[in-house]
């Protein structure tokens, strides 16, 4: 058992994968000598060398394109996109090549590439440093999309993503990088593409992922004072969505609030709401509600506290659902 921050848990997961398989490479802007802007790759180049931990030019399309070529040659590249808003120069390579080659080759050419993306707000950053673009990738056939929310999942999920023969977009909530938890380094992890019940309850279901999972847990604890017994589900996997635990929960509680930092329209949260309405309609005691970011560009850092879903907004949705 070790007490790790999320950043260190990802670092240890990368290290474990690299020790097991010499074909695993880490590449990205400043991932080597600097150890990444969040120090997630700190020490890897020193221990594994410049041939396996590569500092790349500032060219996301080049990073992804190179990773595609490496994967064709049998390597397992792990690409770091320095900030969420920087991914778009590489978006064409991801959706037109990386996501399609396995299908295009009728299964003969797997694409075991992981694209790590620190995402979400809460760090007081400037424009293009606090985006939540997960829906843009979850909509693309051929990509797997996951989001860790805690050090335990971060340690195991990064290793599972690297072992996958499918391309995985790996979202990391940057404002949770420094939160700590005990990690059992010998445990048997849950499957990569599975959601989990983070807290059991019987009166309402809260579902979220990534940076808002902690907010959901805090809301569940605060709602106890009002007599509400809230179940919290960490979605973990955004494509494919594992909604079985959500359906089971809603059939018991009759109420669902979905929380996410991303804007509301045509979002992962919207898909969860639609699927629950479809599958659990006769169990619902109230409309499914969403607490999300707003349908605007991410605001200046002085305004981000008003933009991000916080404890008060989640509790307000809980009260509206319980009062229906």
Automatic annotation (TrEMBL):
Q: Which organism is it from?
A: Pseudonocardia oceani
**Which UniProt keyword terms apply here?**
Thiamine pyrophosphate
Keyword match Methyltransferase: no
Q: Where is the signal peptide?
A: none
| InterPro entries the record matches | Transketolase-like_Pyr-bd, Transketolase_C
Q: Which CDD domains match?
A: TPP_PYR_E1-PDHc-beta_like
Domain Transketolase-like pyrimidine-binding, residue spans: 4-179
List cofactor names only: thiamine diphosphate
Q: What is the protein named?
A: Alpha-ketoacid dehydrogenase subunit beta
């Amino acid at each position: 058992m070790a007490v790790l921050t999320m950043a260190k848990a990802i670092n240890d997961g990368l290290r474990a994968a690299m020790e097991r398989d010499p074909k695993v490479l880490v590449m990205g802007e400043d991932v080597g000598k600097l150890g990444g802007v969040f120090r997630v790759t700190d020490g890897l180049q020193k221990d594994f060398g410049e041939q396996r931990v590569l500092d790349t030019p500032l060219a996301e399309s080049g990073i992804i394109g190179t990773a595609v070529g490496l994967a064709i040659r049998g390597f397992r590249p792990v690409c770091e996109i320095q900030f969420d808003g920087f991914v778009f120069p590489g978006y064409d390579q991801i959706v037109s090549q990386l996501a399609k080659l396995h299908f295009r080759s009728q299964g003969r050419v797997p694409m075991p590439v992981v694209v790590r993306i620190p995402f979400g707000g809460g760090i007081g950053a400037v424009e293009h440093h606090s985006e939540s673009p997960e829906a843009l990738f979850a909509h693309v056939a051929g990509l797997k999309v996951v989001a860790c929310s805690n050090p335990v999942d971060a340690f195991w999920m990064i290793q599972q993503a690297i072992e996958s023969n499918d391309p995985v977009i790996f979202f990391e909530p940057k404002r949770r990088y420094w939160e700590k938890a005990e990690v059992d380094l010998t445990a048997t992890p849950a499957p990569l593409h599975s959601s989990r019940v983070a807290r059991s309850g019987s009166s309402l279901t809260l579902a979220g992922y990534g940076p808002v999972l902690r907010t959901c847990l805090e809301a569940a604890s605060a709602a106890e004072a009002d007599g509400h017994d809230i179940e919290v589900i960490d979605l973990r996997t955004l494509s494919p969505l594992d909604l079985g635990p959500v359906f089971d929960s809603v059939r018991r509680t009759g109420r669902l609030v979905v929380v996410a930092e991303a804007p509301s329209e045509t979002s992962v949260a919207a898909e969860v709401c639609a699927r629950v309405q479809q599958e659990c309609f006769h169990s619902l005691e109230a409309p499914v509600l969403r607490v999300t970011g707003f349908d605007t560009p991410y605001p200046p850092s002085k305004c981000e506290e008003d933009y991000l879903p916080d404890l008060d907004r989640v509790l307000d949705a809980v009260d509206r659902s319980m009062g229906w």
